[in-house]
Amino acid sequence: METRSNHVLVGAVVLILLAAVALFTVWIARLGGAQEKEYDIFFRQSVDGLARGSAVVFSGVPSGQVKSIQLWPNDPQFVRVRISVNDETPVLQGTTASISGVGFTGVSQVSLEGARKDAQPIACPDQPNPQDCPYGVPVIPTKQGGLGAILNSAPQLLERLSTLTERLTGLLTDRNQASIAGILENTNRLTDALADRGPEIAATLAQTRVAIQQAGNAAQQIGELAATTNGVLADDIQPTIRNLNGAIASAQKSAETLNAAIGDARPGLQTFSRQTIPEANRLVRDLRTSAAALSSIAEKVDQRGASSLIGSQKLPDYKGK
């Protein structure tokens, strides 16, 4: 009995020591390891190749691992992936998550990228919103990765390839092939004709080059003529303009002098128009009256002679019955 009791006691002590060593090891590991943060990611795509323990990288740098993968009960189209990353990983506003393949092994990993400088960390608000933090940890938005985008767009690509094939089949009918053959034949003829006219085309290009050069020389000459004209205007026209300005100033002074003279002669002109002109009018009337009398005397002289101016008119002789 004593021997069995000793074995039981030794076994219990050993188990206690092993448990203590395990607890101490875990405690040391926690002290030596960095703190981790957990996030949820809701992928609306296949997570093929992703498993618990898969790597989580931030811009290609290993930063954590996948903790769990499960369907989201609220919407089975989404897969909820819980990840844990190092506390130093800058999971800031603007960070997105995607699934990327690792080489050609078929293994996938979660890639984080897109954090903005000086942005706030992704975190749950003080009063968590069921839509923002449905499971009590921050949610990282997703972005289509290269492989996921190809897999999701594969049906559309196949449909478009099928449509393109049908259209090409309808385009390459016998009639259209004959038309295309005719177009190619006409193109060959045009190419041969251009090759035959190669010397003429070269000569035309040479003449065009000469014409362009002559046009450039003419433009240069026009520019020189314009410069010469500007010099002539500056040397000859400006003195003429100054002389013209002087003549205009002299004419203006003469006009002012004439206006002053007219102002001085205005009283004499008014007297002339009021007194002299009426007297001249009376003189003219008297002259007209005198001229009329002289005309009457001249007529008498012509008809009766000069004696008509001296004696009276002779009466006719009277004869008795």
Q: How is this structure best described in words?
A:
It holds the Pfam family MlaD. This protein is an alpha+beta fold. Helix content is 58%, strand content 13%. The protein has four helices and six strands, in the order H-E-E-E-E-E-E-H-H-H. Strands 1-4-3-2-6-5 form a six-stranded mixed β-sheet. The N and C termini lie far apart (238 Å). The mean pLDDT is 76.
Topology record:
Layout lengths: L1 H31 L3 E8 L11 E4 L2 E11 L7 E8 L9 E6 L6 E6 L32 H26 L2 H23 L1 H107 L17
Parallel strand pairs: 2-6
Antiparallel strand pairs: 1-4, 2-3, 3-4, 5-6
How much of the sequence is in beta strands? Answer: 5-15%
Q: Report how far the terminal alpha carbons are from each other.
A: 238 Å
The ordered string of helix (H) and strand (E) elements is HEEEEEEHHH
Low-confidence stretches: none
Mean pLDDT: 76
What does the main sheet amount to? 6 strands, mixed
- Put simply, the count of helices is 4
What share of the residues lie within helices?
55-70%
Which structural category do the helix and sheet elements fall into? alpha+beta
Strand order of the largest sheet: 1-4-3-2-6-5
Annotation, overall tally of beta strands: 6
Radius of gyration: 64 Å
Task: Write down the overall geometry.
Answer: elongated
Domain Mce/MlaD: 41-113
Pfam families: MlaD
Protein name: Phospholipid/cholesterol/gamma-HCH transport system substrate-binding protein
InterPro entries: Mce/MlaD (IPR003399)
